[in-house]
Structure formats: C-alpha cells, structure tokens
Amino acid sequence: MKEILSNPYLMLIMVLVLVALVVVAIYVLFPLAVSKKILSDTTFSLADKKIEALKDAIDTLGKVIPIPYISVVDKILFYSDLAVHAAEKLYLTSKIPGDARKTGAKDYVVNILTLAKIEVTPELSKVIDGAIEGSVYLLPKTNKVNEIVVE
Fold first, then answer.
1. Which of 46, 65, 84 is the last residue of a domain?
2. 12, 20, 59, 131: most buried, per Cβ within 10 A?
C-alpha cells in the first residue's frame, strides 16, 4: 500500500479505475435495476446521500494526492470529452472516416496538453486513451444494428 501511495501514477490509475466502476454502475446497473423494479424512489434518495459522501471522499483524496496530478487528470477528462464529441460530429458529417475518430481525438488532447507545457508520458497516454474510451462509451448510441421491434 505504501508503494501505491508514494507513486502518483499508480494512485492516478487507482482513481481512474474507481471512476470507471462508478460510471459503469451509473449507466449500466442502475437502468437495469430500475427496469426490473429492483430500485425505488427510497433507494435513489439513499443513493443521493452516498453520492454526497463520495464527493466528500474525493475532496479528501484531493488533499492526499498532489493537486497538480488531479488538475492534469481533470484537464484530460474535460478535453477528452470535447475531442470525442468533435470527432463524432466530424464523422457524422462525413469529414473524417470512422476509424480516424480515436486518433483525431487523442491528437487533440495531446496537442492541448503540449500547449499547456504538460509532458505526455506513456502513463499519461494510457490515461488519455482511457478517458477517450470512457467519453465514447457515454456518447448517445446512433448506430441501430439488429434492432427488433415487437408490436
């Protein structure tokens, strides 16, 4: 545990894994549970309280992890989301091919970080890839393959 706390990159990866798990829970498990009538309004009010506790935990974590690392991750998450949306719009308007979306989004984020005088290390490159994939996952689904409508 001491090695993880002393290595900012390992700590950053742990935070990103935690965020990914929360995103999966919110966007996959919650809708599934609501559709199966497992969750009710009382459950959601309880979840709101837990989210507030999670926010407090993140604020505390911000005091443990040096602020520059959190700031860089925030910038990566923000610009990855912008880059993914921009690449998707370029694809939908036929200005770039579908297979160029990820590289275009990554180039955008890397260029912004370079302009901000932040060195893009291999570890940071993995964080960028993960942030882009997370943003892609959150895009609205526009591709309807094998959709079956029962009337």
1. 65
2. 131
